[in-house]
Amino acid sequence: MLADIRDGDAVRMLERMLLVRGYEQLIVALGKGGNFPITCSALGQEASAVGVMSALGEADRILTNHRSAGHLMARGAEPGRLLAEVMGKATGYCGGKSGSLHISVKELGVLLTSTIVGGELSLATGVALSKKMLKEPGVVACFFGDGAACEGVFHESLNLASAWALPVLYVCENNQWQAFVSRREAMRNEHVSDWAAGYRVPGRTVDGNDVFAVREATQEAVRYIRETGRPYLLETCTYRLAGHYSLDDQAYVDAQELADWRARDPILRLREQVLAMGPLDEAGLEALDARVAAQLDEARRFALESPYPDVAALTADVLA
Amino acid sequence: MDQVTIEAAIGQALAEEMARDARVLTFGEGVALKRRDLAERFGAERVRNTPLSEAIIAGTAAGAAATGLRPVIDMLYIPFLTLAMDAIANSAGKLRYISGGQFSFPLVVMAQTGAGWGVGAQHTHNLEAWFAHTPGLKVVMPSNAADAKGLLKAAIRDENPVLFFTDMTLGFNPGEVAEGEAALVPIGKAALRRAGCDVTLVSYSKAVHTCLAAAEQLAAQGVEAEVLDLRTVKPLDEAAILRSVKKTGRLIVVHEGARFCGVGAEIAALVSEQAHAALKAPVRRITPPDVPVPASYALEQAFLPQAQAVVDAVLAICPPHAHPRGQAVFEPA
Ligand SMILES: Cc1ncc(C[n+]2csc(CCOP(=O)(O)OP(=O)(O)O)c2C)c(N)n1
């Protein structure tokens, strides 16, 4: 699956974005039935996840935050096992012990989903130090939000990665919100990438709703990291189209702002591009939608039918 | 065997483990200067100075440990660990479990504890119970040079995060240490420092010496105290504690950490749950009052558990005529 996404033509990227979107919508639907955990979705941020991931390779390692479903699926995680994890089932990637907020998938190089805002920024330098000292190829990609960029550890992390020349790709997905606080209220700079210069790290902001722009910017960043061994800060400018968490109705968001960003939905945009470029026509897009829907149906069935963990798991894996 | 200080024993442990395993590295604020010999021997990659950034030092250690290195970080004084709690408690301690066992975190966090240097509350604090209270962490607190060396070597080899706390006033105490494998001291095993049959004194780190001094005084009065040095706060050597209390029937726990929700409370609960029938007297705890550590020497000494307080507590539960001098019964543990 990693290879698919690396080759990443438009249709494959669209399919992956549809899968991410469909998964998030499936979670909302399952949540409506009650008795389902609360989750944080990254609805509207699919181009950022798929664009960055499409430019990364198998040797690269990933750390991410509470809105990780898109990152995980863009990296090749199976929606069934992800959903099973969210539902606390034994077949989930972490045997049900993580839930939606801390999923790691070692086999895909995904070390951490951190729900401590900024926690991933704290560990990323160490993962990169391992890469450097053990002379392993690849970079460490660390996803976080504009809110995490306001945490002290963001600044400590960039400073250390720069001082020690560590191969970290910092990916700030600036979705304009920090839970219930607009980022305009919380920081005076327009772009998080502006902060990079103070640490002698290159910083760049890119349209996070344009999957091709994100992929191109990531490729450039990764090339820089490989050539210099030094960190890079990429900011993808995007928008959280759903509430902070599944019960949040977003009533506090300015209607015009929401409408403007809905008009920039990355999936609508890519569909139009695909139609214009010609790899698929309307019928082809419908077939694609159907394929994704079938995959999600299967994921849903798998997760619902999966067993809960044996209670013996309660005390397993505390210590190595 | 060599006579070296605890500080030097720690340096030896680091040197031996770094020579044995190329994945071991050490970093922290000023470490490359403090351990100049290691820096010269193992190079700047493996002995690193860091910026003044406790949170990222600890986070970097956690990330590195999860991906193949074995970092030992020096956080200087234990109060500074409050700035690194997220990485230690939420990451190093929890991520193995919540990842379903996918990752392990073989790292060591070193810091100094203990009152006596007059440096006041923001450099002096015994926070071992905070870490013992957090699942997924081990807590080691040696009282002498041999244990400092042997336990640090074991901590570096351990697959889990180990908090390694040394008392700053003990740092220059000399003691005998062994070399290489012979020096290893297993984590989780208490040491019997003195055998006795009338009362068990349980402690760790500097308080062990307080207990030994008290035991000397008590012996002169015909009371034989058994002194148990935990060496490891977590995992706790429950068997050693229960064995001793079942023998003596009396227990006093002595430590520098806060009494409320402290290590002594845990030990008292353990004994009441598992050795209640053996108790001839209530369990007592001797700890500082619930205050930050004052800087003034006079107040700092008043804060610290003193041998006289241990003697008084023992005599209150263990009449001096219980064992006339010369008739004490010694039993091997
Ligand atoms: C250390 C910490 N503080 C607060 C929270 C509560 N919280 C969860 S998500 C969130 C917002 C984070 O904003 P940002 O980093 O921009 O990411 P986004 O949610 O927008 O993707 C907050 C405040 C937390 N989980 N961790």
Summarize the structure.
The complex is a heterodimer of chains A (320) and B (333). Chain A is of the alpha/beta class and 320 residues long. Chain A contains twelve helices and eight strands.
Could you name the key traits of this structure?
heterodimer; A: 320 residues; alpha/beta; two-stranded antiparallel sheet; B: 333 residues; seven-stranded mixed β-sheet; five-stranded mixed β-sheet; 13 helices; globular; binds thiamine diphosphate
How would you spell out the order of helices and strands of chain B?
Answer: EHEHHEHEHHEHEHEEEEHEEHEHEHH
Q: What's the mean pLDDT score of chain A?
A: 95
How large, in whole angstroms, is the Cα Rg of chain A?
19 Å
Number of helices of chain B: 13
Looking at the chains present, what oligomeric state does this protein adopt? heterodimer
Largest sheet report of chain A: 6 strands, parallel
Main sheet strand line-up of chain B? 3-2-4-5-7-6-12
Strand order of the largest sheet of chain A: 2-1-3-4-8-7
State the end-to-end CA separation of chain B.
26 Å
Question: Count the helices of chain A. How many?
Answer: 12
User: How would the global form of chain B be characterised?
Assistant: globular
